[in-house]
Amino acid sequence: MKEIEKAQIKLLSDRLDSIRHQMANMQLTNEAEKYAELEKEKATLETEIVRLKAVRNNKLSKEAQKLVDMPFKRPITKKEQADIGKLKKAVRGLIIVHPMTALGREMGLDNMTGFSKTDF
């Protein structure tokens, strides 16, 4: 689902960029009607892009809120990161969030953090 939204945003952004280039090359005196049409389409594209980004951010926020509400969380040590599979097997339901992912950036993480319903 996220991939589809990302692709839609990309397509709309590309179309918006194309319209901006067309408008820049246009002469207002000769092609006023065409310019007005492009201006209208530009406005609708901008609002749609803003809406899609808000939907994507809202989904991230729900996921982030779910993780924050988990009772146990702590940074993952370098030793645990070396054998992450072993850690995941030992702690059922462990969710690890990397700080460089969209979710990690949104949550403001500084290092890999594990979230779980059970103590680990």
Automatic annotation (TrEMBL):
Top-level taxon of origin: Bacteria
Record keywords, A-Z: Coiled coil
InterPro entries: DUF2810
Alphabetical list of Gene3D superfamilies matching this protein: Uncharacterised protein PF10928, DUF2810, UVR domain
One matching Pfam family: DUF2810
Coiled-coil blocks: 21-55
NCBIfam families per record: PRK11020.1 (NF008244)
Stated name of the protein: YibL family ribosome-associated protein
